[in-house]
Structure formats: C-alpha cells, structure tokens
Amino acid sequence: MTHDGRSLYLQALIALQQTSEDELLSWFQIAGIHGRPFIPWDGIEWNPSAPEVGYCPHSSVLFTSWHRIYLALLEQVLSSHAQHLAKTYNSTTYQIAADNFRIPYWDYALTPSMPDIVDYPQVLINTSSGPMNVSNPLLHYRFQQFPLNETLFPAGESGEGCLTTYNTTVRFPVNGVSNCDSINANLQGSNLKANTYSVFQTRDYNTMATGTTSNSAFEYAHNQVHHTIGGFNTMDPGHMGVFAYAAFDPIFFLVHANADRLFALWQAMNPTSFLTPDIDSTGTFTNVVGGNLTVDSPLTPFTMVNGSAWTSTGARDLVGLGYSYPEIMDWLPISKDDLAKNVTAAVEWMYGPST
Ligand SMILES: N[C@@H](Cc1ccc(O)cc1)C(=O)O
C-alpha cells in the first residue's frame, strides 16, 4: 500500500467508525451482521426455525464464500469513503490511490505476529490539511452507544464473559486491558504456517472450506488466530474470541482478508473443484440446522444491485468482484494451468517446509 493509500485507508476507517450506529452502512451495523445484535440487517429477516445467532456461517461449506462477500461489502463502503476523501486533496496521486483502493490483509501464516500498527494508540497520517496525529482506527472500535443496549447485548451470556462491560473492543484482556505482547508470543507457538500449508495438500473444495478440528481447512488456522487474539480465557475473552462480537474488532477484517487470499490461492491451484452439497450442521440467523447447502444457497444478508441474493457461485471468481492478490496474476494473458503452476510455486516458496 502506498503512503497515500494508507492515509486514505485509515481516514476511511475513521469515517466509517464515526458513522452513526443508526446507519445501515456504519461500522457498528456492518460488524453486527456477523454476530450480535441478532436483528435483521437490510431487511433480511430472521428465520424463526433457525438458531438465534448472527448471519455468519462457521463449520459450514459456506464459510469461505460468505466471508468473501462480507469483505467485498466492507471494501465497497470504505472505497466510497476513500473516493470522497480523495476529492478533498485536489491531487491526482490521492485520486489514483482512491481508484486503486483495496482492503489490506495480514498474512498470519507467514508473519505470526500482529502488524505493529494495530497496537498504536495514534497514527500519523497526511490529511488534506497536512500531517496529523489521529486516534488509530485499527487499535479498537469505540462503541458510540455505551453502555450497550442490554436487550441486544445481554450481560452474562455463556462464553461471552465481560464483553458487554467494555466501551471499546479489547484483545486478550487482563483486567480490561489488551495484552498484545502475550498474543504475539502465543501466535508464534501456533504452527500457523504448517497448518496453512497442509490445507494446500487437499484437492477437495468442501474439505478446504470448512473444518474446525483438523488442519485440512483454512477455517482451522483462522480459528486459532481468533482464539489467540481473543486470549483463550473463556471467563474473560476478548472480542475476537467470540462469534457474536468478533467483527467489531478492526483486526477481524485483516485476518479475514488473508483467509480470503489463502482461499483464492487454493482456487487458482484447483480451478475445477467447487462446493458440493452439504448438510448445514450449525445454522445461521436465516439457515436452519440440517438444511441443504449448495452453490445456490443465498449468502444472507448480501444482495446484488439487481436485488437477487449473492451465492457461492457469484463469489467464485475474483475477476468478477474486481480484485486479485499479488501471487495470482490473473490479469496476465496466461492459461489456467500455467496460473495454477505459478501459484503452486508461490505457495511452496511461502509456506512450504524450509529445507
Ligand atoms: N469460537 C470459534 C473461534 C472464533 C471466534 C470468532 C469467529 O468469528 C470465528 C471463530 C471457535 O470455536 O473456534
């Protein structure tokens, strides 16, 4: 990311976090799609036969495709803030940075330590009126309405510890204070690189997409990252450790953008393998436990401009979504076979066992 891009990204995050929590496209409501509050977003109603949880599928073959569209929503909203901000500079370099805006990822497999920036209280950015130190929007989200609404965020729920008592998101809280050094030490000990590499050995989409108990799915290492940043303490977890609260923490999207990148690398290596029907063992806000999940299952609550639901078919191809990753040079005139070979080589180089 260029310096200009970084300034726009941080300011776009600030603008989003400052958008009123009453707005559909606020940080609060976008994060709220994932878990609490368990209320409809964009008019997509709860299915009374489904569990009372968030819309996010976990332990489900929709895990990878659903989170891809979730990231696309965030990118679209941040990008419109970036466009707006770029106009205030009256500079072509900022306009170019806004036109090329993409959300960043943190490669937790290659660098099992949180990016330094997520722990800075303040960041120095170039605003249109000059350099300025501002509160860092990657450190935490500060809830605008605090105390939280007790009906939507009930206290004392099992597994949710003290999360209703914090006015900002926290990571590995000890007496309410985040503990990043301990998180980084624990990340180093989590075998994230080997657990990521092993997923590239499978050729079956469903095996790659979901699985919480074995390292043949990207979900597994991703869960380790959630738990580690959450802090393992089930009596007093941080937001990232709990489905219902995880997406409020800004690091959530850095983690998920990388899970999406790993998913995209795998797809480039296995272009013909795709989702096969599977039974939903966990359910979501709209999906009943025991339902059949297919490539056409709606990825609720996300709808396209024409009003139809996003599905895993729509999420399959990055080109249609308007982005790619450095290792997937699909914009070059190259066959799918050659692309698969290049990406395989990149994966070996990055995550393979060192000799
Ligand atoms: N609770 C998850 C960890 C996790 C937390 C939040 C998430 O959004 C995702 C995963 C697990 O059982 O492993």
UniProtKB/TrEMBL annotation:
It is an enzyme of class 1 (oxidoreductase). PROSITE patterns: TYROSINASE_1, TYROSINASE_2. GO terms for molecular function: metal ion binding; tyrosinase activity. Belongs to the tyrosinase family. This is tyrosinase. Pfam families: Tyrosinase. Residues 58-75, 249-260 form the Tyrosinase copper-binding domain. Gene3D superfamilies: Di-copper center containing domain from catechol oxidase. Keywords: Copper, Melanin biosynthesis, Metal-binding. Its EC number is 1.14.18.1. It comes from Mollisia scopiformis (Conifer needle endophyte fungus). GO terms for biological process: melanin biosynthetic process. It catalyses: 2 L-dopa + O2 = 2 L-dopaquinone + 2 H2O; L-tyrosine + O2 = L-dopaquinone + H2O. PANTHER family: SHKT DOMAIN-CONTAINING PROTEIN (PTHR11474:SF76), TYROSINASE FAMILY MEMBER (PTHR11474).
